[in-house]
Amino acid sequence: MKLNGVEGEVKSSTASQIKFIVPYNTALTKHKIVIEGGGKQFESAVEFTVTKTGKNAKWNAVTVNIPNSQNVSIFPGGFSFVFDGKLFWGFTAIGGTPVSQYYFMYNPARPDSGWQAEAIDGKLPVTLQDAVPAVLGNKVYFGNSLHADNYGKWWQFDPMAKTFTPVAPIPGTHAALGIAFTVGAQMFAASEDDNKALYAFNPANNGSWTKAVDAFYSQINLGGAVVLGNDVIIGPSFKAGQPPVRKFMHKFTPNGTGGTVTELPEIPDAKMGILTKTPAFAFKGKGYFMVNERMWEYNPAATIPWRLVMTDNLNLSMEHVGVVGDVVYGWNNKGKIFLLEFID
């Protein structure tokens, strides 16, 4: 069963009646119902009007020890990643006098322990802000911090030894923000400003960078990069010569240290600000991008790849997302954790 090319789950069928779940997608208004089966296709004589749709997912709060009695943002400009089945978050200054630097670790296998704090005073610049990370083997690499003192600078983090090592800077004199990801055994990164080309990273001998592809966006500002198999879905971004709206999406398919870029259908209703984070994650072969209060699903196998999963004010405050096994974790800058539950 399809409406406007979007498949809806059939719940039951008889010779005279078919019951289905209306797809949750804001693009649906008035459309004819198309039924396919047994090698045949049938279309309704009249249009079906969608008057109300429901959520396909929801956030459930988790009771967790939060090392933050003041209930305020802990790591403004902090970044996060998943390593060895654990959530890591922070790596920036908390504030106060003197300034303190920490990162937090949450182990889903030991939820009662809550967030565990690790002091890193003096190991990273106190001006580190909104860096982009990527996991490569048993190390984590991050860089392109927003602050001018850290433009283009990158570091290696060893979560087991808890050490930080500077590595080669990415090309460009004003490299900040951008994206970073790992496909197979190859890591890539790009800047938001200055040199926007996508570069492949070689960790040998403190690192080196090789251009993979030329820039394919004009601005991406904290956009998402979701790895689906051997493809990476990147965006939303601005594009040169197009309306100034962050809605353009691209697919990067690597080939060694190079690759190709393909433009994808625009993400619907993406009214993004310039410095608005886009938490994004991969789950069961699909990509998910959180745009303001909306969560959009990208299905590479669907004729119309974008589907609105839910609209929820919680998405506005969800700064970080991590997937461990078959569980999606989201948390805000106050350290409150939520689990994403998909609704049939």
Based on secondary structure, the structural category is mainly beta
Largest sheet: 4 strands, antiparallel
Strand order of the largest sheet: 2-1-5-6
The total count of helices amounts to: 1
Radius of gyration computed on alpha carbons: 22 Å
Low-pLDDT segments, ≥5 res: none
Average the pLDDT over all residues and give the rounded result. 88
How much of the residues is beta strand, in percent?
Answer: over 45%
- State the distance separating the first and last CA atoms: 16 Å
**Secondary structure tally: strands:** 30
**Fraction of helical residues:** under 10%
Shape, per Cα inertia axes = globular
Quickly describe the structure.
The chain is mostly beta strands and 344 residues long. It has 1 helix and 30 strands.
Explain this structure.
The protein is mostly beta strands and 344 residues long. The protein has one helix at residues 314-317, and strands at residues 2-3, 6-7, 10-13, 18-20, 30-37, 40-49, 57-61, 79-83, 86-95, 100-106, 115-119, 132-136, 139-143, 154-158, 163-167, 179-183, 186-190, 198-202, 208-213, 224-228, 231-237, 248-255, 258-264, 280-283, 286-291, 294-298, 306-311, 320-324, 327-331, 337-342. The protein is 1% helix and 48% strand. A hairpin with a 2-residue loop joins strand 28 (320-324) and strand 29 (327-331). The mean pLDDT is 88.
